[in-house]
Amino acid sequence: MENVKIQNVVTSATLNEKIDLERIATAVEDIEYEPEQFPGLVLRLEDPKTATLVFGSGKLVCTGAKSPEESRRAIYKIIDLLKKENTPIPDPQWQARWSGDGTKHTFEGKIAAPSIKNVRYVDEEPKKKDLKKDKVKHDKNTITFEGSAWEGQRGINFEAEGVLTFDIKQDSDYNPDFIFIGKNKTNPPEIPFELREQPTLSGLDSISPAREPRHIAGEDAGFFVWFRGPEIVVQNIVASADLGVELNLDAIVFGLPNCEYEPEQFPGLIYRLKKPKVVLLLFGSGKIVCTGAKTREDVENAIVEVRRALRKIGVKM
After folding, report:
1. Which of 9, 110, 116, 209 is the most buried (most CB within 10 A)?
2. CA dihedral defined by 96, 101, 105, 110, rounded to 10 degrees?
3. Are 291 and 233 in contact (CB under 8 A)?
4. Residue 205, pLDDT score
5. Measured between alpha carbons, how far is 3 from 237 in angstroms, rounded to an integer?
6. How wide is the angle at C-alpha 290 spanned by C-alphas 193 and 65, nearest 5°?
7. What was the pLDDT predicted at 217?
8. Is the pLDDT score of 314 beyond 60?
9. What digits encode the pLDDT tens for the residues 189-240?
10. Of 302, 312, 300, whose CA–CA distance to 275 is shortest?
11. Is residue 268 within 8 Å of residue 260, measured between CB atoms?
């Protein structure tokens, strides 16, 4: 796709924990911290090569990554560094619960991922005596379970890397109406939840993993999965591409809508798209810079759209 190259990804993370910048600046080497000039400190990594701004409020801003995945990896490295300096940040983990609604329900299934560790069973069921003991087994790649719930919930907490696959039955049946994967909005608002990776499901074809469960233990029956960890959001992707043809910007400015071109001030033509909502800089050489994207797909769709728009006004490509 037009030799698209991501030049920079800007990502923010919210830890919801106060950070003692003075102590971190004293304890960690190679930190830039001049509070008289800027309220945050700067932490630079070589792998991935990024710079992260750390603020006392618990907000992080990472720049310099070449992909969203690289940016996320940098943020988790910074979090590990902060935790080593006794900043109280909870370990990121997946939480899975099988929940009852006043009626006994049984659950069985398998959770798989490239890496699974630190599996812990959780029992929040008040009617334990009326139910069989749950069975949970796990190794480094899978968790299998057979469980039940009546008026509360039981489940597991675990850490995982990579895309998770869920194969879940409730009451011996695959029923997508009772499987919820996403954010749990009933938890306190100060605790952020996100999907670290987009999960997939086997055994079910009609479920949307983006669904956000609003379950209340003892009232809603179902199998609920969410991720508890830092709230990480891609704010901006800057990418470049080459259309492979020279562009007559003096002519194009009169044909394209929503564009600006003032060569005395800036050598590129500014073209604003509404969908995807990005800004494109077009240069006479045929080079393009895209900014404002949230995903690589946004960048690729924007380039497809600008090609279509240029052809429409007679530019041969």
Report:
1. 9
2. -10
3. no
4. 36
5. 16
6. 50
7. 52
8. yes
9. 332 333 333 444 444 333 333 334 445 555 677 888 877 777 788 999 999 9
10. 302
11. no
Amino acid at 251: A
Residues 93 and 157: their CA atoms lie apart, in Å, by 7
Q: Please, which residues have CB within 8 angstroms of residue 36's CB and are 6 or more apart in sequence?
A: none
Q: Which residues pair with 259 in a beta bridge?
A: 271
Q: What is the pLDDT of residue 172?
A: 81
Asked if pLDDT for residue 184 goes beyond 70, the answer is: no
Structure tokens at 313: 């006004």
Q: What is the pTM of this model?
A: 0.67
Residue type, 294: K
Give the CB-side neighbour count of residue 99, counting CA atoms within 13 A: 20
Mean pLDDT confidence for 172-187: 59
- Do residues 120 and 76 make contact, with C-beta atoms less than 8 angstroms apart? no
Question: Residues 47-63: pLDDT tens digits?
Answer: 999 999 999 999 999 99
Residue 60: both structure tokens together: 């992080």
The confidence score (pLDDT) of residue 218 equals 52
Supply 152's token pair. 């509360």
Residue 109: closest CA among 185, 175, 186, 194: 175
